[in-house]
Amino acid sequence: xxxxxxxxxxxxxxxxxxxxxxxxxxxxxxxxxxxxxxxxxxxxxxxxxxxxxxxxxxxxxxxxxxxxxxxxxxxxxxxxxxxxxxxxxxxxxxxxxxxxxxxxxxxxxxxxxxxxxxxxxxxxxxxxxxxxxxxxxxxxxxxxxxxxxxxxxxxxxxxxxxxxxxxxxxxxxxxxxxxxxxxxxxxxxxxxxxxxxxxxxx
Length: 202
What we know:
By secondary structure, this protein is mostly helical. The chain has one domain (8-192). Helix content is 69%, strand content 0%. It has ten helices and no strands. The protein has helices at 8-22, 26-33, 49-53, 58-82, 85-100, 113-123, 125-142, 145-162, 169-182, 184-192. Helix 2 packs antiparallel against helix 4, helix 5 (85-100) runs antiparallel to helix 6 and helix 6 packs antiparallel against helix 7. The longest helix is centred in the middle third of the chain and has 25 residues, at 58-82. The protein is globular, with a radius of gyration of 16 Å.
């Protein structure tokens, strides 16, 4: 955890602004804009990029991923520029929580993987890149998005310590714990061997 040098009232405002940005449900917006319907009534009902991909529209899925990652990165980078490292980490966590529990759609949000990656790249880019590489490797081997996300989330706090970004450990740990909580049903299906795989032909 970085030293808290920014006044607490400013950190509170930063957190509120970042949470609001994180609450923008880009998956819902993209799906409606591209004529795919209400994403909450499609597939798993999740508002993230993985469920958008299940509509068969790869472009929509990629756009959703980039926008969800971008809002986490933007929140953290703006806070870093304006106030410093402590504010950046508060913003990263707040934007992440906004995606998980968005005020604009009744606090029923996504599972946070894209926003986790975007926030991670902003607060400690080597750790964020490592998370991307781990996700890609696990997904390439097993073709299971949730498994890739869980492995990447679990390893990033450790990597933060190992590669010299220990001040971001708490932020990565907090996001990793929330990812595991939001993936509780996926974890059950992984144990049962019933978790959905992506068709390699897609």
